Amino acid sequence: MAFDLAAYLERIALKDYVAIPDVEALQVIQRAHRLAIPFENLDVILGRPIRVDGESVFEKLVTGRRGGFCFEHNRLFHDALVAIGFDVRPVLARVRLGQPGVTARTHVLSLVTVDGQDWIADAGFGGSYSPPMPLVDGEEVEAPDGARFRLARDPVFEWVVSRHGPAGSTDGRGEGDVWQDQFSFSLAPVFDADLEMGAHFAATHPASRFTQLRIVSLPLPTGFAALTGREYKRFTKGETVASEITDPRVYRIRLGMLFGIQLSADEVAALGLF
């Protein structure tokens, strides 16, 4: 199936945006993607299969106007970058945020080459928002919420991305005013079978965060919103508002109004939260 770039750009509120494969477009498109499409695992909890081929991901995230987890987000983002003309390939990562020990490669991001310089770009990390970064040891960038991200060489895992910023602009796993590792990654080649395996583990393994929790998150222009189980948190302009949702009708309204996820009353009931 040919990638419908116009429909994708409309989905991320960039209708009529003329993109060329340069750094500015990479930054603009990743930011717009994350602001428009929520990170969520609700289909996992509802027992629906998670498919990470390009056609299935487009149907769910663009046509169906749903969100997904990293393998879905970054497949869609990858296909959009290819359609624009970027030189891009996936790389696999091990999440360190809130994870003791060595974890499996259950995260994917993109390696993008622009004018001979490699960049990492990630439209699918649910814990916080990091802008694209040049693949340079010691490189730091600042996110719109004020957090800083640092890229460093690692003797074992090749590369590590760390974050220093307000805990409020995370999904709840942030520790605040300290450097905190987010994930490590290597530049080894990645194939479709690797992506399918990673997504399968994330969606089915009993130890996976996505089989245990009901997760929805979305960066805001200057903050972050997260819904983990019944706990709602919104951080914007340095202030955090938090509450527990005790009524399934309120949960459903919150999903629709803030995150753009439309679930029926029966689907919300099937999440087992109330």
From TrEMBL:
InterPro entries: Arylamine_N-AcTrfase, Papain-like_cys_pep_sf. Gene3D superfamilies: Arylamine N-acetyltransferase, Cysteine proteinases. Belongs to the arylamine N-acetyltransferase family. This is Arylamine N-acetyltransferase.
